[in-house]
Amino acid sequence: MHTTEQGAMLRFVEGTLVLDNVSRGDFAPAPAGWAWDGRVGAWRCDASGYSRVTQLFTERGIAFKDAVPQWQPIDWPYVSLPPLRPEQDRAVHAWLTPRRGVVVMPTGTGKTEVALAIMWETAVSTLIVAPVRDLMYQWHDRIRLGLGYDAGIIGDNTYNLRPVSVTTYDSACIHMEKLGALFGLLIFDECHHLPGPLRRDAARMSAAPMRLGLTATPERSDGLHMDLADLVGPTVYTLPLAHVRGRTLADYDVVRIPVHLSADEQSHYDSLSGEIRRYMHDKVKEDRDYSWNDLCSDAGKDPESRRVQKAFHAKTAIEDRAEEKLRVLEDLFRLHAGTRLIVFTGTNAMARDVSRRFLVPCLLNHCRKKERVEVLEGFRRGDYPVLVANQVLDEGVDIPAAKVAVVIGGKGSIRQAKQRLGRILRRQGDERAVLYEVVCAETREETRSRLRRKSDAYVRTSHRRV
């Protein structure tokens, strides 16, 4: 490669790397990911390629000025971290060799402690990216308590940038064009969110050479989890749930309770099912390749398709809000009277139904921070014996110790199943946890339940009628 008299220079520009002072014809063959940008007359690639680029240039003996790194060493005010358990120590050392990669550990086994130990070891400007605001503030508190550092906050209408900062995936995507050269270490909490079409920009637009992904459930139904190897690094450590069940985590039981629709609910359910079947049958006769996705696309312009789509949602609502679920829930409240209990629903509507029926608080995604903090503190004190949520408690958020959970609705997602179970597995002595799964028999909920039970977390599920 030939350069001008000024010499080649590598710069960070708005989420990309720009190679200045190298003509278009003299950078051949261009490495994968590079493209000629005629607007500025320079070669350009994603900022995430920084480590590969500098390594390639060094191997080829290419002289260049590296103007990218703006990160700095960190002097932690103090360190107050708990001693690592053997599995946590193995996770830290597995990551430290490549200094890139994903650590997979079950919920409750201390992924945050692993990350804090890595932050202390690397002592460099760090950005922690969390999926929701609650987790962002949780990380802020853990850094302050464990490393004595008052981290910056970027998100929730706040932009306080510091050499160590916490943010959300959405805010990281928005601001990474300015932040991408400021941090030497990126930590993606619940990193299975990262490979989405937009959120991946949080990784692509950063030049951070060191990257850590944390998750209990890396797999995605769309297969995009395969992209984590490029965005963060390969999986460097995996801790199976079976290795910590009854040891680091509480031992537990999963109990499946079937319920049935009432006569009126079943009649309405069957009517809606027939309506949907007839419509799809007629469409497939016209076009063999017609699918449910086609119907959803047509719903915006075709009244008949829209009517069938509404019928599908009404059918799902009957499954989700079956009256007998509330009767079973009342029996479980009596069975576990005096025990803190979490109820997971499939929709906001059912969460409100439970909240109104039993006069217990519910947490939804749109609840403000003050309300969430008050409810969780009340649950911790025992003021509220029951807490109801749809999806807001599925991931990451620390919940005061509870050993009983009831799932009365949700997806067929193995990830959601593991995350919900993980909310009750933090060990307290030899206390055993129990998760009840209440399922409408002879409905699509049975299919979703079978999908959830493909998880190793649901082995030895027992069945009971209440």
Physical arrangement of strands within the biggest beta sheet:
9-8-10-7-11-12-6-13
- Mean pLDDT equals 89
CATH-defined fold name of the largest domain: Rossmann fold
The top level CATH class name of the largest domain: Alpha Beta
Uncertain runs are none
Beta fraction = 15-25%
Q: Give me the count of strands.
A: 20
Helix content: 25-40%
- In whole angstroms, the N-to-C terminal distance is 75 Å
CATH-scheme architecture of the largest domain: 3-Layer(aba) Sandwich
- What count of domains describes the coordinates? 4
Tell me, briefly, the overall form: globular
Number of helices: 15
Radius of gyration: 26 Å
Q: How is the main sheet built?
A: 8 strands, mixed
Name the CATH homologous superfamily of the largest domain.
P-loop containing nucleotide triphosphate hydrolases
Main structural class? alpha/beta
